[in-house]
Design goal:
The structure holds two protein chains of two kinds. Chain A is an alpha/beta fold. Helices cover 32% and strands 27% of the residues of chain A. In chain A, strand 6, helix 5 and strand 7 form a beta-alpha-beta unit. Chain B has one domain: MetI-like fold. The radius of gyration of chain B is 22 Å and the shape is globular. Chain B is mostly helical. The chains are: A alpha/beta, B mainly alpha.
Chain lengths: 237, 255
């Protein structure tokens, strides 16, 4: 067994008048080296799942087992850059002093297309550039597992497309496992090796997509998968 | 551009005040003892400068302010940091701090003279009491106001509590810390003059009080002007240091 295994995960939040149960026993395994995309309606627990796996929240019960060496990185929905650090220092934020490799940093900066902006402050960058810095900050740590919470949601169509290609290139180069949360079915179909649908606090359906990248979203197979996903999402919980 | 937008209007403002002052004196509306003319004050200033009396006073007060100010900064920083680094420690000292915040330092003078005499310790303690609270409150505000989303980034990279404090909390609080330091420096100057008027034989406060007792209103005015100029100069010098370390960002609340 490799990858990550989520066993009987339970999580709920106390509300003023009652309890909001997000997961009441979620079971899921994430294959090593694959891009697993979590899809679901708003409020179904996509972000909570990511935060639980990333250790940013503690589950009420259940277990998250990491079977590989665990070097993780998180890309949030917003860039969350340190406003006082320039691009280079922001990218190296996750590294310890001894881990900083200037060549590696330069390469990553080039990969995300920010060469020439090394000394710029986040306030001097566009939204897309900031998100690319956030992606580079995760990649420079050479993680074996990357968690991404709707990282391209705020980007325009073209930037989003180039970032998706970037992510696929990185995956090819590093063989990292990626857990990607989105509410965009097209994004899921573009990126995923496996799509997991969350509904009612559990895994409602899962779709394997064994197709090479780049993908044509208008091909029969993906149109069929898209229809199945839409049907599963529209089904009452 | 800066000359036309900032310096000329400032000079015009000062010039208008001097002109009004001179007019009041020339018309004889006010007795020369109550309000000496600008020329007379200028002559006194030159004499006091030549004799070294003015600079000795400034130097003594300045050293006291610096000493008290930095002790207060160290204390404020340590207590505010403790609150962040040891969660749950705050209630142990917060009520005591808030109690003393509401006690004017000048009210402590009789007790301080009794305990510490009229030496330097009393004056240092008064400056510490006056400048500690604005700095403490600003530093606490800076530390507790740190964006939790940035702290989450640090957590996602396995930062320890101490490392997150140094790399995220502290830099994000710089603007608040500096604004607190600026406010406190002004408070320190106010406090030292008060303290020197009550319990001192040197310094600007003592110089002003002594001049009043000798009916030398011109010397009193020179002393007041000196306090204003020295206070503004230290404020300006702190501004340079801040621009150097805070990167001159518009968001640092320092203008």
């Amino acid at each position: 067994m490799d990858g990550i295994e989520i066993v009987d995960l339970k999580k709920s939040y106390p509300l003023e008048n009652g309890v909001l149960t997000v997961f009441s026993g979620l079971n899921l395994s994430l294959r090593s080296g694959a891009i697993t995309v979590v899809l679901g309606k708003s409020g179904c627990g996509k972000t909570t799942l990511l935060r639980l796996v990333g250790g940013l929240e503690v589950p009420d019960a259940g277990e998250i087992r990491f079977h590989d060496a665990r070097k993780t990185a998180f890309v949030f929905q917003e860039p969350r850059l340190m406003p006082w650090l320039n691009v280079r220092d922001n990218i190296q934020f996750g590294l310890r002093r001894g881990e900083i490799d200037p060549d590696m940093t330069r390469r990553i900066i080039a990969t995300v297309g920010l060469t020439g902006f090394e000394t710029a402050l986040p306030s001097q960058l566009s939204g897309g550039m900031r998100q690319r810095v956030a992606l580079a900050r995760a990649l420079v740590c050479r993680p074996s597992f990357i968690m991404m919470d709707e990282p391209f949601a705020a980007l325009d169509h073209f930037t989003r497309e180039s970032m998706q290609n970037e992510l696929l290139r990185v995956r090819e180069a590093t063989d990292a496992s990626i857990l990607f949360v989105t509410h965009s079915i097209d994004e899921a179909l573009t990126l995923a090796d496996r799509i997991v649908l969350l509904a009612g606090g559990a895994c409602a359906a899962s779709f394997e997509i064994d197709m090479p990248h780049p993908r044509d979203l208008t091909c029969d197979e993906l149109i069929r998968t898209r229809r199945d996903i839409m049907a599963a999402l529209s089904a009452p919980n | 551009m800066k000359l036309r937008k900032r310096i000329l209007p400032a000079l015009a403002g000062v010039g208008a005040v001097l002109l009004a002052w001179q007019l009041v004196c020339s018309t004889g509306v006010v007795n020369a003892y109550v309000l000496p003319s600008p020329g007379r004050v200028w002559q006194t200033f030159l004499k006091m400068t030549a004799s070294g009396e003015l600079f000795t006073g400034i130097f003594v007060s300045f050293c006291r302010v610096l000493k008290g100010f930095f002790i207060a900064f160290a204390l404020a920083f340590a207590l505010a940091s403790l609150r962040i680094l040891v969660p749950g420690s705050e209630p142990y000292y917060e009520y005591i701090v808030q109690f003393f915040r509401n006690v004017p330092p000048i009210a402590m003078i009789p007790l301080l003279i009794l305990w510490c005499g009229i030496g330097e310790t009393t004056k240092t303690v008064i400056i510490v009491l006056a400048s500690f609270f604005p700095m403490y409150l600003s530093i606490v505000k800076g530390f507790t106001g740190c964006d939790p989303r940035l702290l989450e980034v640090a957590r996602s990279f396995d930062y320890s509590r101490g490392r997150a404090f140094l790399k995220v909390v502290l830099p994000s609080a710089v603007a608040d810390i500096l604004v607190g330091m600026r406010t406190s420096l002004g408070y320190s100057w106010r406090a030292i003059i008060g303290a020197e008027m009550v319990a001192a034989s040197t310094g600007l406060g003592h110089m002003i009080l002594f001049a009043q007792q000798m009916s030398r209103t011109d010397k009193v005015i020179v002393g007041i002007l000196a306090i204003g100029v020295v206070g503004r100069t230290t404020d300006w010098a702190l501004g340079i240091v801040i621009r150097r370390f805070a990167g001159g960002t518009a968001q640092n609340g320092w203008n």
